[in-house]
Amino acid sequence: MLGALINLLYPVLCRVCSEKINEFDRNICADCAKKIKERLPPFCIKCGRQLKGDPELMAVCPDCKKHAPYFDRAWSACHYDNPLKGLIHDFKYKKISSLSTDFTALIIDFMKKYNVGKDCQMILSIPMHSRRLFKREINHSDILAQGLGKKLGISYSSNTLKKTKDTLFQSKLKREARIKNLHLSFSLKDSSIVRNKNILLIDDLFTTGSTVNECSRLLKNSGARYVEVITLARGDSI
């Protein structure tokens, strides 16, 4: 009732089309939500890259055959296209943290469909260096991970992984340079926390996978049993 009253006095508008939304805790109307493209199989069974062929195809992509990732499996829920692309920009750079509710719902729907993280014991997010966090004010991956942990009832730790090196922006670098840029840039508060654990690692975007792979390398070398990655979006296409 309180939510309905608030929405009556201060109507929520869809951040895509500006139409009124009846649900006070959402940012995207039903029509615009339908325009967000869910990623459909087949996927690479290691990095989650979009593959061609039958949806039942179980295959490893050429990149993972050449450079096996440290994580055991990676998934991405949606294609990095508009309107989601613009919404992610608002989330990260305009600090519209309430979008995490809509994003969390998209990720959870995908996870349920493909049994992602079913044996997960701990959720971790990609950390941000303190200097960058000071400028950004929020860590978007942390906000997503908090929401997922709460909805899934899984323990979430915000300070287990730390970014110890203020690296160059990954978007400006090519694949090999990204890997070199991130090498040894993360640390663990206490390796015993992750030892023999099945971990679900959260981020907003999967581009080359360099960031989640470097974190996974650290987690696996520290004794983690299984590392599964889930991101909101990925920009690959068939």
Explain the overall architecture.
This protein has 238 residues and is α/β, with parallel strands linked by helices. The protein folds into two domains: 1-35, no CATH class; 37-234, Rossmann fold. It contains nine helices and eight strands. The strands form three sheets. Strands 3-8-7-4 form a four-stranded parallel β-sheet. The chain has a two-stranded antiparallel ribbon with strand order 1-2. A two-stranded antiparallel ribbon has the order 5-6. Strand 1 and strand 2 form a beta hairpin. Helix 5 crosses helix 7 (140-152). The longest helix has 16 residues, at 99-114. It is globular and about 50 Å long. The mean pLDDT is 90.
The description of the largest β-sheet is: 4 strands, parallel
What is the number of strand segments? 8
Helices and strands, in order, run as HEEHHEHHEHHEHEEHE
For the record, the CATH class of the largest domain is Alpha Beta
Structural class: alpha/beta
DSSP helix count? 9
Over the alpha carbons, how many angstroms does the gyration radius reach?
18 Å
- Counting copies of identical and different chains, the oligomeric state is single chain
Q: How far is the N terminus from the C terminus?
A: 46 Å
Strand order of the biggest β-sheet:
3-8-7-4
Shape: globular
Q: Mean of residue pLDDT?
A: 90
What amount of the residues lies in strands? Answer: 15-25%
Please name the CATH architecture of the largest domain: 3-Layer(aba) Sandwich
**CATH topology group of the largest domain:** Rossmann fold
Give the % helix. Answer: 25-40%
Regions with pLDDT < 50 over 5+ consecutive residues?
none
